[in-house]
Amino acid sequence: MLAKVLKYDLKATGRLLVPAYLVFIVISVVNKICLEIGLRNEYESVSVQLAQGLTFLLYFLTVFVIGILTTVFVVMYFYKSMAGDQGYLTHTLPTQTEVLIISKIICSLIWQLVVTLLISSSVFFMLFGHIGEIYTSLGDIFGFTWQKMLSSLDFDINIYSILLVTASAVSAIMSSVTYLACIAFGNLSNKHKVMSAIFSYVGFYIGLRVFRLIIDIIYETTKSGIESSVAAEMLNGKLIFDIMVNIVITVVLYLLTVDIFKKRLNLE
Amino acid sequence: MPPILECNQLSKYYGSKMALANVSFTIEPGRIVGLLGPNGSGKSTFIKIANGLLTPSQGSVTICQNPIGPESKACISYLPDTSYLNNWMKVSALIDMFNDFYPDFDRNKAYEMLARLGISEHDKLKTMSKGTKEKVQLILVMSRNAALYLLDEPIGGVDPAARDYILDTILTNYNENGAVLITTHLISDIESILNDVLFLRQGQLVLSAAANEIREQNGKSIDELFREVFRC
């Protein structure tokens, strides 16, 4: 049943996101062409420079818009299908509530992954053919080579990279679960369900930020005056701590979401 | 045969406001039951509880001897009183979706009913009038071979000709080993098809009897009795 629910979740979300991603790909290609023409513009034509500037601005804006659009559209779909009119269909399907929620989480993760890969590939595509120049230029500006910079670090970059990828994955799952949990909290209200969901999200976000700030202050205070290698280990430790905290928050929010949609559903 | 629906001491409160109070009844297989009452009497609240869309404050409902959950939902074919399908979907895609989720869905029956009404399977819901959308929803719901059909105001807001079509569709397509529960306040239109009648007033069950029994005992139609009981 999970595969069936996921199929329809992806269809419902993909009908807007796929065309938006195609537009983004077209804008990326146009921008790349303008960029290359501009770089070969020996006569420094003003019109070519203007077109190049405009397409770059458009591209830059699209990178932000595409990320925001993905989140907004997925969250709107979550709301409509779980707490809106379409909830009448969703919650009468002969399946467990957990299946409905896990399908939404997977759907959100798939689109987050797609948009991340799309933006990364697009940036790489923009730089393609010029990576060597950028590498040298940055070295010239900051007076180092990448090898020297990496070797000067006191910690294992591989471990740190693995931790960063893990942290990103956990964070992506947590954000999807958070959206669903806030919709569930909003559903508990008899009136103003949307506003209640938004306030739940704002409250949760502020609470999490304050908690992170406290952890950062403790970390910064503790690391001052100690050896850099120990500080590097602490950085890894802090990242592991962040991952653990996010996992705990995700599990708690998931259980609350399941409980609300299973035992306290309120589709008046 | 065991009852298809058993409602036991069911109560529902919205905050301090009572929507249902100690409602108990059963629905036997093969019966078409009218859950009748004025607006705000608790009809839709009951239907939503039976579908798991609302949680009761007290009491319980069992469908095909299952508490509300995936098993009970598999037994129910539900027509809500609102448009609940994706507007952007084509009729054919909706049929595929119902076919995917409900093993008892008969897609040939759905296509036959669509053809009879001249509704194209290639049309999207958003291009249809409100009445046509309601007919599509009804076709999807009645194309299931379900144990229990819960139809919430199926004839509310449609013209008399459409009402006849809807009632005819219900009568000719429901699973005769199952049961149908219809909520409405348009009694005269559905009176002829009802086997049993439940009157709800301010959340309380004030009458539960067979339709013929009511007519014989009171010497009046159910519509007349309804007007008498619920006179403002």
In short:
The complex is a heterodimer of chains A (268) and B (232). Chain A has helices at 2-39, 46-82, 87-90, 97-127, 131-142, 146-152, 157-188, 193-223, 228-263.
Oligomeric state as shown: heterodimer
- Work out the strand percent of chain A: under 5%
Helix and strand run of chain A: HHHHHHHHH
Approximate strand percentage of chain B:
25-35%
CATH topology of chain B: Rossmann fold
Total DSSP helices of chain A: 9
Low-confidence stretches of chain B: none
* Shape by Cα distribution of chain A: flat
Distance between the termini of chain B: 40 Å
Return the structural class of chain A: mainly alpha
Helix content of chain B: 25-40%
Total DSSP E strands of chain B: 10
Give the secondary structure arrangement, pairings included:
The complex is a heterodimer of chains A (268) and B (232).
Chain A: H1 2-39, H2 46-82, H3 87-90, H4 97-127, H5 131-142, H6 146-152, H7 157-188, H8 193-223, H9 228-263
Helix pairs in contact in A: 1-2, 1-4, 2-4, 2-7, 4-7, 7-8, 7-9, 8-9
Chain B: E1 5-14, E2 17-27, E3 32-36, H1 43-50, E4 58-63, E5 66-67, H2 70-75, E6 76-79, H3 91-101, H4 107-117, H5 130-142, E7 148-152, H6 160-173, E8 179-184, H7 187-190, E9 196-201, E10 204-210, H8 211-218, H9 222-229
Parallel strand pairs in B: 3-8, 3-9, 6-7, 7-8
Antiparallel strand pairs in B: 1-2, 1-4, 4-5, 9-10
Helix pairs in contact in B: 5-6
Question: How would you explain this protein's 3D organization?
Answer:
Chain A is an all-alpha fold. Helices cover 85% and strands 0% of the residues of chain A. Chain A folds into 2 domains: 1-143; 153-268, no CATH class. Chain A has helices spanning 2-39, 46-82, 87-90, 97-127, 131-142, 146-152, 157-188, 193-223, 228-263. The longest helix of chain A has 38 residues, at 2-39. Chain B contains 9 helices and 10 strands. In chain B, the strands form 2 sheets. Chain B has a 6-stranded mixed sheet, sandwiched between helices. In chain B, strands 2-1-4-5 form a 4-stranded antiparallel sheet.
